[in-house]
Amino acid sequence: MKLLLFLLLLFQNSFSWPHHIIPLSYDLLFKLPIHEFNGFTGSMVLHFNLSSLSDNITLDAVDLHSFRNISLIRSADLTEPSLKSIKILKETVEFKFEKSLFPGQYLLTIGEYNGRIGNASEALFERKKPLLYTTHLQPNHARRLFPCIDHPAVKALFRLSIVHPTDTVAQSNTIAMDVHVENRKWQRTIFQATPLLPAYLVAFSVMPDSNLQNRLEQ
Ligand SMILES: *[C@@H]1O[C@H](CO)[C@@H](O)[C@H](O)[C@H]1NC(C)=O
Ligand SMILES: *[C@@H]1O[C@H](CO)[C@@H](O)[C@H](O)[C@H]1NC(C)=O
Ligand SMILES: *[C@@H]1O[C@H](CO)[C@@H](O)[C@H](O)[C@H]1NC(C)=O
Ligand SMILES: *[C@@H]1O[C@H](CO)[C@@H](O)[C@H](O)[C@H]1NC(C)=O
């Protein structure tokens, strides 16, 4: 009986999420690699539905840091609740607001944040020879790439853009709808929106541009 209770508690803990935040879509931009801190910079606009009164927006996040240019806009009246504090905890990031937020739809913008590129085969990691950056977010590593509700039952639409070196190509879940060069060093690939997906099914890779390699070798 005690064991059953323990298992139930364990199950509840690992499968619970703040039910008052229902993500609708994520617009995500990742720029990589950033050699200064062996990682990437991210930018995110999360469109979500708040289903009950709350003074905080708490999202799953691990090893993400330096959150800057945060803003929240309430869709109904375009008001901007003022941010009181950002708390980075072990498994979450907590954005606290001066006043309680009423239920409804909101846009949370995180202008920029930093994350890490690892070398184990999880989250966003690096492979040498040929140099490759790729993701493996199953079962719960999406939170190492972007603040989210990282739960298999919570699905949303994702629009990804990747800023990557000009001698590489980027691939993701969906086809690229635009690729444009930003400067000598970087180009931007913009992908079509995904269907509704849990966060852990988001995937992308940045790899050497083999066409470019062939042209150079000829
Ligand atoms: C947002 O949440 C409210 C309350 O739970 C619900 O009535 C409404 O249908 C939801 N809207 C969307 C777009 O999910
Ligand atoms: C965040 O808001 C939820 C819903 O109002 C509440 O249950 C939770 O305790 C709050 N968390 C913190 C750290 O204030
Ligand atoms: C952040 O905000 C500052 C001041 O408003 C602005 O100069 C800067 O470009 C913004 N950065 C990002 C990444 O949005
Ligand atoms: C990756 O591996 C290198 C050695 O190959 C090590 O120095 C570095 O700490 C590792 N990085 C991470 C994030 O594990």
Automatic annotation (TrEMBL):
Superkingdom classification of source: Eukaryota
BP-aspect Gene Ontology terms: peptide catabolic process; proteolysis
A GO molecular-function descriptor: zinc ion binding
Recorded GO CC terms: cytoplasm; extracellular space; membrane
Keywords: Signal
Signal peptide interval: 1-16
Record-linked InterPro entries: Aminopeptidase_N-like_N, Aminopeptidase_N-like_N_sf, Peptidase_M1, Peptidase_M1_aminopeptidases
Domain Aminopeptidase N-like N-terminal as annotated: residue spans: 23-201
UniProt xrefs under Pfam families: Peptidase_M1_N
Keyword Signal: yes
PANTHER family reported for this sequence: PEPTIDASE_M1 DOMAIN-CONTAINING PROTEIN (PTHR11533:SF257), PROTEASE M1 ZINC METALLOPROTEASE (PTHR11533)
Protein's recorded name: Aminopeptidase N-like N-terminal domain-containing protein
Species: Caenorhabditis brenneri (Nematode worm)
Taxonomic lineage from the root: Eukaryota, Metazoa, Ecdysozoa, Nematoda, Chromadorea
